[in-house]
Structure prediction request, 155 residues.
Amino acid sequence: MNDFDFHTGTWDIVNRRRTDFLEESCLLKEATEWEEFPAVSHASRHFGGGANFDEIEFPTKGSSGLTLRLFDPETEEWSLYWASSRTGKLTPPVVGRFSGGRGEFYGDDTHAGRDIRVRFIWSDITERSARWEQAFSVDGGETWITNWIMASTRR
Prediction:
């Protein structure tokens, strides 16, 4: 239940995001372009470790977002919900758990009118750093295109 306790605090983040992640060239594994930009995240622990909330600011993008993570003690799984200041909408959750220091979370969503499968992975977690990545699948999870990576360093 306390899997996200490591995330409590303030983090400086280096983001790498694909600019063309669902375009045909990327789906065919051809060259793709990445952009890098900074962020700062402030995360807090709630419900005795059964909930985690963070707000992230992207100063060069002029936007922010937030993630709500909730632990279900019956299924022993986390549900992660994302909202962006750009849309004002809460996305469908990705659901999963940690095993061996790695968290994997899956869900269904749409992007640009296209049905997609979404995967979040938390890995390389230490007291001072963590890695998060997001990937999309357009073939039901057979293949994945990683489109966003966050390298976090504790402030």
Remarks:
- The chain has a mean pLDDT of 92.
- The first helix runs from residue 24 to 27.
- The CA atoms of residues 103 and 122 lie 5 Å apart.
